[in-house]
Amino acid sequence: MNRGVIHVDESPIRLERWRKYLPNWLKRFLPTRGGRSQDHHGKAIFGFTVFLLSESIVFLSFIFTYVGLRLTHSGNWLPPGISGPKLSTFVIINTVVLLSSSFVIQPAENSLQHHQLNKFRWLWLITICMGTYFLIGQGIEWSNLDFGLSTGLVGATFYVLTGFHGLHVLTGVILQIIMLVRSFIPSNYDKGHFGVSATTFFWHFVDIVWVFLFSLLYVWQP
């Protein structure tokens, strides 16, 4: 089999004509003329991008449900004696730590691309610690709230939104640990590092989602 063969692009959307207008970092998430037969990394990243788009739809459904309920029940959103989630210094610090981790994990992936394995390990480990810090902080916040999952709409929506996001953060941390352990296998990343690229992309996705959730749950006051 000729591994340099370019497959025919049978997509109904001619992505190739739009590629020249996109930045280089975005081009890697799109297939090129069906993708070269040996371009496993590019095709896998494209597939992972489609997966994250499907995850986005789930989050959007939760977010639109929250907005709709909040607007239609603005008068009785908080049960008597319930203060709801508060924008505290603790929450802000926790948010800053999570969002800052995106500026750590990306240089970590770049270091691996330049075969700087030790730098990758240290930056990757810092990202793991930052994600773990966020999860612990979220657990502490939950324990100090004056409402639970069954406390009306405010409890149901808050815990579903933050819990589903927290599950994604936990998944990201587990994936990062796996990628870090694999870095100690001799020559493991010599032939490619799709796992690291996918985990990095997933982590950026998690951070972006939290920006929306943070704005809705702690900042927005209709």
UniProtKB/TrEMBL annotation:
Q: Where in the cell is it found?
A: Cell membrane
Location, primary (coarse class): membrane
State whether keyword Transmembrane applies. Answer: yes
Q: What's the protein's topology in the membrane?
A: Multi-pass membrane protein
Q: Report TM segments.
A: 45-67, 87-108, 120-136, 156-181, 201-220
Q: Domain Heme-copper oxidase subunit III family profile spans what residues?
A: 46-222
Q: A Pfam family in this protein? A: COX3
Q: Does the record carry Transport as a key word? A: no
Any idea which UniProt keywords this protein has?
Answer: Cell membrane, Membrane, Transmembrane, Transmembrane helix
Q: Which InterPro entries has this protein been placed in? A: Cyt_c/ubiquinol_Oxase_su3, Cyt_c_oxidase-like_su3, Cyt_c_oxidase_su3-like_sf, Cyt_c_oxidase_su3_a-hlx
Xref: PROSITE patterns: COX3 (PS50253)
Query: What family, per the record?
Result: Belongs to the cytochrome c oxidase subunit 3 family.
Its recorded name reads: Heme-copper oxidase subunit III
Q: Lineage, please?
A: Bacteria, Bacillati, Cyanobacteriota, Cyanophyceae, Nostocales
